[in-house]
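Re: folding output
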Amino acid sequence: MTRQNRLTEAVLIAEPVILAADSYEGDEILRWLADHVTDFTGETGNDQKEIP
């Protein structure tokens, strides 16, 4: 399984939680995802693109 498929699978599993989150929880989830993007992509910190 490729890293992209792992990310896709993780998002599909988390989607109901993300959709049910209030604005505070949603912001926290987005921060966590941004902070942990390399866990899913395998990129180093130097390879990251800025997330708006």
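--- second protein (sequence, then structure) ---
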Amino acid sequence: MIDWREIDTVLLDMDGTLLDLHFDSHFWLEHLPRRYRELHQLDEASQEALKARIVGEQGTLNWYSLAYWSRELGVDIVALKREVQHLIGLRSDALDFLKWLKQAHPRVILATNADRASLALKLPLTGLESYLDAIVSSEDVGAAKEEQAFWFALQEIEAFDPARTLFIDDNASVLESAREFGIKHLLGIKQPDSQRPEKELQEFIALDRFAQLLPEQLPMSS
């Protein structure tokens, strides 16, 4: 599927790619609306209205900003996330893939829309950081991955060659944005949320397991 001799850089999404998206789905669409209603002593209609409001921000920097939602809703989002942090976990064979990458040649960069507060919660619980050469958040550059500005800013930071870069993400809009920028090797994720049905990515190959990417033998170092 991938000729690793053609890859110098691997860009990886976090939520839904390396980590099971179940935590985020549960938090934003179930736990937060319910706790918001409880904390503010509101009716059930307000809970449903909040769900619609959250979904309405999808794809924007606000959607990914814990500070924004804390401010807008008058709650401590990080504290509420900690209430269900036991749901944070790696997807299937993500750890095996990261271990393989560490032994192979590519530079591995976490390219994520998660803000720094989310990273501060998730990285210590998952151990991802020890397998990464760099972490770039959309918060760092002031643009979400859905925007071209993110990719131009990322290239300023990391100076990667789009023609020799593999990018894996569960979000079709993000993959389309990366393709527009010129990243050559693009892969999606078939089931980002272990508790929800598989997704159709019509224009991109979607991975079931990272093992599909591994060669029978490690690539020879040049």
